[in-house]
């Protein structure tokens, strides 16, 4: 039976990818953010997960405003990143796990979710940057990817409750998979940020700290705000916390926080990295 060993939650700002490409990890601007990954590297070296199930949002590389699924699950043998217009295409491919993807799709459909299924799919900075952060260097990625895209871009967006329930359904699906793989779950994006309009640059440290302090012990506290409340609180892109809410749902009941890092700003974003260890199996 497969097992979820933990969850990695991180911002996915494209500028982080640029800093990696330029080797700026020790630069005073970037160091406080990159230092937050030391415990993540230790965790991954010890746990050696086989699969990463990644809840993220696509910003226009694979889906655009003309076709925007609320939930989409990749079932491709391999995924690639491409230049999104900021001049970097990360070269390392992301091996897929189509059998596990289809198992997750079947199980979440049985749980009455209706995802779009993608047998070919590009993944944007919301997957590429977290992967570069977690597995730096040029070696092939040691995990297989199951990407799960949530629409946090074009309204109407799904509710926090719906995303949490999707995450729980994915967690149950992973636990019921017959393989022996060890799975790590990712939630990417956030925390508070708004890139456009009159409130460009908006950051809300109070709301971010509320999310960070409740994520492990009481994730349902994050469901008290609806999606539009979150846009108001955290900014129009701060609503990427929906990806974190889904990933936390997949981890199930008891988790232990191994590390938490919060640094403002990275680019226009309040950046955060959280590492949670799963201390029990996911139950219905
Ligand atoms: C930034 C943050 C994001 O989440 C994103 O997708 C793009 C840009 C930023 O802060 O620059
Ligand atoms: Fe984003």
UniProtKB/TrEMBL annotation:
Organism: Alteraurantiacibacter aquimixticola
Any GO MF annotation of the entry: ferrous iron binding
Designated name of the protein: Protocatechuate 3,4-dioxygenase
Pfam families: LigB
Domain Extradiol ring-cleavage dioxygenase class III enzyme subunit B: 7-269
Keyword Oxidoreductase: yes
InterPro entries per UniProt: Xdiol_dOase_suB
Keyword Oxidoreductase applies: yes
Keywords of this entry: Dioxygenase, Oxidoreductase
């Amino acid at each position: 039976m497969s097992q979820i060993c933990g969850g990695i939650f991180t911002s996915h700002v494209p500028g982080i990818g640029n800093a990696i490409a330029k080797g700026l990890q020790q630069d005073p601007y970037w160091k406080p953010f990159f230092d937050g990954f030391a415990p993540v590297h230790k965790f991954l070296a010890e746990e050696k997960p086989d699969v990463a199930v990644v809840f993220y949002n696509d910003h226009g590389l694979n889906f655009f405003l003309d076709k925007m699924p609320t939930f989409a699950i990749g079932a491709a043998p391999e995924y690639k990143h491409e230049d999104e217009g900021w001049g970097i295409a990360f070269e390392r491919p992301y091996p897929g796990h189509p059998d596990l993807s289809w198992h997750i799709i079947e199980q979440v459909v049985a749980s009455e979710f209706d995802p779009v299924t993608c047998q070919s799919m590009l993944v944007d900075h919301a997957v590429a940057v977290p992967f570069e952060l977690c597995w730096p260097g040029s070696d092939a990625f040691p995990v297989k990817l199951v990407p799960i895209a949530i629409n946090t871009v074009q309204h109407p967006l799904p509710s926090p409750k719906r995303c949490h329930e999707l995450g729980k359904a994915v967690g149950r699906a992973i636990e019921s998979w017959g393989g022996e793989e060890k799975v790590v779950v990712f939630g990417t994006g956030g925390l508070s940020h708004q890139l456009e309009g009159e409130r460009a640059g908006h950051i809300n440290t109070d709301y971010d700290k509320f999310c960070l302090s409740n994520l492990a012990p009481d994730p349902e506290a994050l469901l008290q705000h609806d999606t539009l409340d979150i846009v108001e609180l955290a900014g129009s892109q701060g609503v990427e916390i929906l990806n974190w809410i889904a990933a936390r749902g997949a981890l199930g009941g008891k988790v232990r926080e191994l590390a938490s890092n919060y640094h403002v700003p990275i680019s226009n974003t309040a950046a955060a990295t959280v590492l949670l260890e799963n201390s029990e199996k996911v139950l219905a």
